[in-house]
Specification:
5 strands; alpha+beta; two-stranded antiparallel ribbon; 2 domains; 4 helices; three-stranded antiparallel β-sheet; about 180 residues
Length: about 180
């Protein structure tokens, strides 16, 4: 671990570039601004033995981080991605009955609007047509029964919303929900 730490420090901003033979470099996204070497791309033709070891260490770290993200175990120090997705799933499942009670359309389907199965049939989609716009989320088939909403063969056509747009629509829809006193 100490060796990896030393290698990481070696590629820090202001250190000698491993390609341009000791000239000081500053980096942006692991690209040497002096000579243009991209340290996450293919190794350059001219690279010292030590530089190659550092580069391979970085590649190994990138692969480790990708695997950690894919497993859901990546964390902000408080919660893992798995925990956050589980919370989102449960909060969404709790919200949908209230939306239905307000007369807002909420459905679930094992297919997208074009008839294709959701991610090779491993997921389903929940689509809500809120007064503020459409929001949709995918969940693993194991969670199908958590959503007490109508099942449809095909959900409404996706309106192209991004995750950021869906979040804004959800936030705006909160203003349309009754306050704790029922107003």
């Amino acid at each position: 671990m100490a060796e990896k730490s030393a290698q990481v420090q070696q590629l820090g901003a202001g250190s000698a570039c491993l390609t341009c033979s000791g000239r000081t470099r500053e980096t942006t996204h692991m690209i040497c601004l002096e000579c243009g070497t991209d340290y996450l791309a293919e190794p350059p033709q001219k690279l010292t033995e030590n530089g190659l070891a550092v580069l391979l260490g970085y590649r190994a770290e990138v692969h480790r981080l990708r695997a950690e993200l894919a497993s859901g175990e990546a964390s902000d120090g408080f919660h893992t991605h798995k925990e956050l997705y589980e919370s989102r799933l449960l909060l969404h499942a709790h919200a949908t009955p209230a939306w239905l009670a307000k007369g807002w359309k909420v459905v679930k389907s094992r297919r997208h609007h074009d008839g294709e199965r959701c991610f090779d049939g491993k997921y389903f989609i929940v689509v809500a047509e809120l007064p503020t716009g459409q929001v949709s989320f995918h969940y693993a088939n194991a969670d199908w029964n958590l959503f007490a909403v109508p099942e449809v063969p095909l959900p409404p056509e996706w309106d192209g919303h991004s995750p950021a747009e869906a979040a804004r629509r959800l936030r705006d829809a909160l203003l349309l929900m009754p306050d704790p006193e029922g107003n």
